[in-house]
């Protein structure tokens, strides 16, 4: 009987670990950024960067994270170019947000490059997530 | 005239054509998208264009420059990028037996590798009659948003009866 319990719990545990590896939450990603050298994360720094304008030389236009995600995070945004709707980023209205590490990494890379013109540092990415987490 | 013979010939001709197209998986539109990774990754910012809308050489060029994708960043990790390039190349227009793909491909000059479907000569010609001012409509914005006007675009069907332009209405010649 003890053996069975042990076996079952091993199965459950490995399943849980597996799921974690596949999706993984925002905290896991943030500790990954800390392991890469970032310090404590600050929601207010994240917010400042979120609204800060960056001039795109090619188009001559200002860009920030609100350009596509909109001014209110609990409402849906609109892709600046294609007009396609982007569902709200706030977890308080959209429980699917910040639940997939691969997805978060992919979009942080693309959006930093597009908006700021370079990749963000581990600290900056963690700060962005800290800000988004509280919405 | 031997009508029986003629009808027999027509009949077998039709059957032969059907057999050929069934065999090659052909149809009247373009082959619909049948790959979830593609639908997810290439359908986030716009309509997931069917592979049969561009030739292999175009897809290869497009997939080599995702970091500057029409002034957008659409970068992927290398594993997914390769998977998607393989999918696009396999079902590319120049390997398709669908009628619409064939027409599109035939109009592209040898060696040309357009990155825009909307710039393919056959499509430019077909779209000549689209009133320019409809593109000012917020819901449409650009000819690249196929599915906004072609309501059956997801099925690979671009026939005229499926066209309904926002703010303009059904398209009747």
Explain how this protein is built.
The complex is a heterodimer of chains A (135) and B (173). Chain A is mainly alpha-helical and 135 residues long. Chain A has one domain: Cytochrome c-like domain (Cytochrome Bc1 Complex, Chain D, domain 2), CATH 1.10.760. Helix content of chain A is 53%, strand content 7%. Chain A has a two-stranded antiparallel sheet with strand order 1-2. A two-stranded antiparallel sheet of chain A has the order 3-4. In chain A, helix 2 packs antiparallel against helix 6 and helix 3 crosses helix 6. The radius of gyration of chain A is 18 Å and the shape is globular. The N and C termini of chain A lie far apart (47 Å). Chain B has two domains: 87 residues, no CATH class; 47 residues, no CATH class. Chain B is 39% helix and 2% strand. Chain B has seven helices and two strands. Chain B has a two-stranded antiparallel sheet with strand order 1-2. In chain B, a hairpin with a 3-residue loop joins strand 1 and strand 2. In chain B, helix 3 packs antiparallel against helix 4. The chains are: A mainly alpha (135), B mainly alpha (173).
């Amino acid at each position: 009987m003890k053996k069975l319990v042990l076996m079952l719990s091993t199965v459950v545990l490995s399943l849980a670990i597996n799921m974690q590896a596949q999706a993984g939450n925002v905290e896991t990603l943030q500790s990954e950024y800390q392991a890469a050298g970032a310090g404590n994360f600050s929601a207010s720094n994240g917010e400042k960067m979120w609204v800060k304008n960056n001039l795109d030389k090619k188009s001559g236009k200002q860009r920030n994270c609100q350009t596509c995600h909109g001014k209110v995070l609990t409402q849906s945004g609109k892709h600046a170019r294609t007009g396609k709707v982007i569902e709200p980023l706030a977890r308080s209205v959209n429980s699917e947000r910040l639940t997939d590490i691969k997805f978060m990494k992919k979009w942080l890379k693309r959006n930093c490059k597009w908006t700021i013109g370079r990749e963000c540092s581990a600290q900056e990415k963690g700060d962005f997530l800290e800000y988004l987490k509280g919405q | 005239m031997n009508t029986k013979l003629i009808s027999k010939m027509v009949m077998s001709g039709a059957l032969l054509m059907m057999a050929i197209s069934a065999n090659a998986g052909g149809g009247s539109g373009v082959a619909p998208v049948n790959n979830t990774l593609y639908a997810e990754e290439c359908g986030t910012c716009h309509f997931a264009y069917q592979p049969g809308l561009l030739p292999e050489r175009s897809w290869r060029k497009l997939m080599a420059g995702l970091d500057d994708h029409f002034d957008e960043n659409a970068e992927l990790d290398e594993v997914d990028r390769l998977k998607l390039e393989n999918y696009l190349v396999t079902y590319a227009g120049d390997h398709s037996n669908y009628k619409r793909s064939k027409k599109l491909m035939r109009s592209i000059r040898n060696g040309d590798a357009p990155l825009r479907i909307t710039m393919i000569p056959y499509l430019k010609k077909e779209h000549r009659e689209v009133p320019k001012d409809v593109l000012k409509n917020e819901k449409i914005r650009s000819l690249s948003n196929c599915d906004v006007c072609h309501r059956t675009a997801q099925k690979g069907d671009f026939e005229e009866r499926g066209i309904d332009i926002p703010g303009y209405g059904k398209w009747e010649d």
